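Please review this pair:
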Amino acid sequence: MPSELTIAAVGDILISQKIITTSAVPGRKRKDFAPLLRHVAPILRRADLTIGNLEIPLAGPEERYTRRSEETGFYTFNAPDELAADLKEAGFDLLVTANNHCLDRGLGGLQRTLDVLDAAGLSHTGTFRTEEEAAQPWISEINGIRVAILAYSKSTNKIPVPKGYEWCVSLLDEGRMIRDIRAVRPQTDLLVVCPHWGREYTHEPVTLQKRLMRRLLSGGADLVLGSHPHVIQPALRTPKQAAVYSLGNFISPTLMNRPATRSGLIFKARIIKEDDGTVWIRHTGYVPTWTRRRGRGGAMRYEVIPAVPVGLADGKQFGLSRREEKEFARVVRHTMKVLRTPVKP
């Protein structure tokens, strides 16, 4: 009898100071991120494997979690530990940690993040605590189907990778990525590659993304799920493979005054393994999402709203105002338009 596996994947989980502040529990020090995820959790929990890009370290309590680095000029991030358990409860199984913010709190912050994820029961890949850990690709058998996930980041935002610890983060390198794929391919039924790449705030993939996408797919990847641009980029589908250049922001405030940075995507795939060992992607689907802001001042809250069914922005079930319904409808139309846009060679 054929085996079946369902996968869900989202883009950047970017928890800013604003979102942290609005997640406070009155009268207590702890934060509660569950309300932020309550509308999308039922979708994420239905998948056998749910993947997200954790765009922030979990480096321990701070008075100010988001701040600008004087050395690099980039904003640096951190988030409370409660986020990990709330992501697990919402349905996440694995978080990709290879991204340009993984060293925002140094090597210690990178390592502590993985400890916190372990304690929450979340798998992870892309950053590592030891050289031995870095040498072992993430491979797991789910419903009789062996899945491997490889993850890479384009940079660490000018924060130097500590000397002697070059293995602590997998960086985007074409030769290395192809070698990794060739090494892992014989060990797995389904190979997923998660590159953190591209140019921020643009819906058009850059030349490097296009070239790497061709190499990854021709080299043996079955699914390529990109992140980093903070906005949606086009999807690709062949008879045997599927890819999205950028899944956009799953959780985020408005960045650089660009409303599109509050738009994201839940990518869904149904994988079949036949009795003869043949593995194929039977179905792919997309659920547009939108990070909603409701209330003002101390009463402000954020929550991720899914378009269910796909293509419809029925705000009644989420208590959206007429203005929000119209904005959400525009988000859904724009997301689906971008996904279907042919990529220029």
Residues 322-339 form the longest helix (18 residues).
